[in-house]
Amino acid sequence: MAGLVVVLVVLVLLVVVVRRRYVVVRVRGHSMSPTFHDGERVVATRRRHYRVGDVIVFRPRTGSTNDTDVAWRIKRIAAVAGDPVPAWLGTDHPVVPAGRVVVVGDNTGHSQDSRQLGYIEISGVAGAVPDRPAGG
């Protein structure tokens, strides 16, 4: 009986550690095509720092209570804090503010990204998907 308790405790601790380190997300839509496809599942690893080119999973901050607005999103980082703001973002800020990133979908014609959402707060980032070049 004591052995079973030890095994259960170890399993619970393992689950807690894995859930803190990884998040599994289903890709929705075609904004990251052809790199990622609608319905594909990806595993994101939590990190402390992100760089341009990383594909991240995040929840955008919105004022809406619509469930589709709080779903996880997957996009590629175009600029990180301190980088010049991309001209296509159309903002008056010369650099990306601290604690934020600029994201864009690989399929820009079908992507809701920083052009609509603005800067993405690092605190809302669940993690980065392992390297996969644009175009898959």
From TrEMBL:
Main localization of the protein described in the UniProt heading: membrane
Domain of life (superkingdom): Bacteria
Membrane topology reported for the UniProt record: Single-pass type II membrane protein
Keyword Transcription: no
PROSITE patterns for this protein: SPASE_I_3
Residue span(s) of domain Peptidase S26: 5-85, 92-129
Compartments, record wording: Cell membrane
Sorted UniProt keywords: Hydrolase, Membrane, Protease, Transmembrane, Transmembrane helix
InterPro entries: IMP2, LexA/Signal_pep-like_sf, Pept_S26A_signal_pept_1, Pept_S26A_signal_pept_1_CS, Peptidase_S26
Family of this protein: Belongs to the peptidase S26 family. IMP2 subfamily.
Protein name per Swiss-Prot or TrEMBL: Mitochondrial inner membrane protease subunit 2
Species this protein is from: Amycolatopsis heterodermiae
